[in-house]
Amino acid sequence: MTTLPFQPRGLTWTVLRLHRLPLWIWAALVVAGSGGLLWLHQLGQDAAAYSGHCAVGGTGTPQCSAGLRYAGDELDFAQLLAWIPFGAACAGAALIGRELQHGTSVLAWTQSVSPARWLAAKLAVPAVALLGGTAALTLMFRWAWTSGPDNGVNRWSGTYFNAAGTVGLAYALLAIVLGALAATLTRRTLPAVVLALAGTALAYTLGAAVRPHLWPASEVRGPWGAALNHVYQLDLGMITRSGKHVSGLDCSDQAVPGDLNTCLSDHNAVDFYAKIHPTAHYWPIQLVETGVVLALAAAAVAAAFWALRRRLP
Amino acid sequence: MSREPAALEARGLVMGYGRRRRPVLRDCSFRLPTGRICALVGPNGAGKSTLLALAAGVLRPTGGTLRVLGAGPAEARPRIGYVAQNRPLYPQLTVAATLRLGAELNRGCWDRESAERVAYGAGLDPKATVRSLSGGQRTRVALALALGKRAELLLLDEPMADLDPVARHELMCALLAVVVERDTTVVIASHVLGELADVCDYLLLLEEGQIKLAGESEDLLTAHARLTGTSPDFAPHTVVESRATGRGHTALVRVQGPLDEVSRLVERPSMEELILAHLRNPGAPALFTGSASPAPSQEAAA
């Protein structure tokens, strides 16, 4: 504690001291993750330098394998970042559930710390550590990813969307708060952890399901090209002569592939359409989703305080 | 009639855990004036720990009211010291860090000297983690935290249960020294009276969730007598417990009039006898001395 630039006092000191080990482990993980992302950035620079000389699939010069390795490692890091909320859910549930289960919360409450202040500190200190670490890792990941070679990754893929934007921070915060809520509801560690993990998984799933509707989608007409590989595809289909959009129609059933006009007339259609979110919608959707998740987190905080107060005078 | 605020004042207190289970406290009423050292005695499961947890403001009663130091239990929490029966302490902290925690959470009013005297009295290593301590050593540390807080009311749940006789005596002396100096009110819950009898000047006897005896130890003792005579009829006194002995009949009675010392042998019962007689005979009516009866109602007090 002597190395800290500020001298924590009172309740803050207590929470830092009580959770010294988990906080150090988290700090070590953040440092290790940052080191890994630094290395990933370097790998990406190497891969980008040679990408012009390599055919798709990484054949050509021996250095072309760097591109393949980079793509795999980048995905690994994205997945690790996207898993942070699950760790946060466990931490929130365990840090608070353990105290309620073993009665050590009673010790704090009868040592001049009101239960509400106690819960606030037990939430705030880990949340600050969690958000600081996650923000650093997210920024470093974005830096490595955006400066690396373009390896055809869709920025809208669930893993990348959570790992490289503000929603990742919001989900981490929601998860730790859900952990606290589960702990104050069950007052036991293990059920709280299970409940918090389930809640976090549900939030992730709902988030992915609701995401396309958070911003009005655009529609593009004409044959589907490679440009669609980089947008968020919501719906593909054809427009019939009557002007109706029929979803799911494509040309895979053509005897002779390639002739789009024949394909269109076979389906009694006049044009192709694609409902998409272009890259321009990326940050609006990130921010709207972040707002929604933060609102949920605020509601979960209120519920956790209510659940704690329910049994107290 | 106006009285100074009591350390504890319960009125029709009810506490149940779950709807289907029988309540632990049932219509429990009593008053404990400040400045007393009170033994809260009762058999296992009588509701002693529940009553202390309610007084410490860490449980919400199902019904009734409880005033602590003239305030609600939640508001009074900063003014009380509580040692729960399971001695909650953070296992990962050392003894020294646990005392530091007490000092950090009670900045400005922490009594470091008393806390250290109680914690380190028996040569406890400050660097030992709480996890490695024995039950008795944990009790020491928990008691040190409660004392260091300079509380006005100490609620101690079975504080002596896991201490050896030497430590009991030594800790009790250390506790009393602090308590007498500060005029602290103390409630000590125990299922046996034992050596508490010499220390406590107030008694609350709790049985099946209700208070059976409440008041100054002296007053409770003088309200009772052990009579031995030839006749099994002890009127006009209320018989708490009677049995036939070799030469006649002996009864522990609640005195209701002049004692006839001619035809009967009149003896003063010990506190232990008094409690046992009441525990063996749950039918005996409850007895509250004047200071232990809760004020009849707010209107009457005003």
List strands and helices in order, with pairings.
The complex is a heterodimer of chains A (313) and B (302).
Chain A: H1 10-18, H2 20-50, H3 65-82, H4 84-102, H5 104-109, H6 115-147, H7 158-163, H8 166-186, H9 189-210, E1 218-221, E2 232-240, E3 245-247, H10 260-266, E4 269-277, H11 282-309
Antiparallel strand pairs in A: 1-4, 2-3, 2-4
Helix pairs in contact in A: 1-6, 2-3, 2-6, 3-6, 4-6, 4-8, 4-9, 6-8, 8-9, 8-11
Chain B: E1 8-15, E2 25-32, E3 37-41, H1 48-55, E4 63-68, H2 73-76, E5 80-83, H3 95-105, H4 112-120, H5 135-148, E6 153-157, H6 165-182, E7 185-190, H7 196-199, E8 202-207, E9 210-216, H8 217-222, E10 224-229, E11 238-245, E12 248-254, E13 265-267, H9 271-280, E14 287-288, H10 298-301
Parallel strand pairs in B: 3-7, 3-8, 5-6, 6-7, 9-14
Antiparallel strand pairs in B: 1-2, 1-4, 8-9, 10-12, 10-13, 11-12
Keywords (chain A): Membrane, Transmembrane, Transmembrane helix
Protein name (chain A): ABC transporter permease
Transmembrane segments (chain A): 21-40, 77-97, 118-141, 161-183, 190-210, 287-308
